[in-house]
Amino acid sequence: MHSKPLPKCKQRLPQPRQRRVRERNARPANALDGICRFLGIVITMYFNDHNPPHFHVRYEDFRAIIGIDRLELREGSLPPRVLGLVIEWAELHQAELRENWTTLAAEGNFRRIAPLV
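Given the sequence above, the corresponding structure tokens read:
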């Protein structure tokens, strides 16, 4: 008993799964990931971002913008405990955050900042 061969369009060879590999420098054009990372919190700044000086915070599905001068939540939301940790970290590194903001705007460079823990 012979079975009919499948038409070419229905014949599928197993394809190896391709994983998307993100190169180290493959970032959005103006995003600088990694000013600081701690406890699952990611602090970023963006080149040529709008005033007043601020930084961006990512934690799980939460996003927020924190003003550097007043250390206040300007936009978005974070769980209260995480917001407290971010503000505590920012108080310790406020001068470095201001310096990064200025240097990033002028030269496009930044320095990493030590984590809270």
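Residues 28-107 form one domain. Try to locate this feature in the token string yourself.
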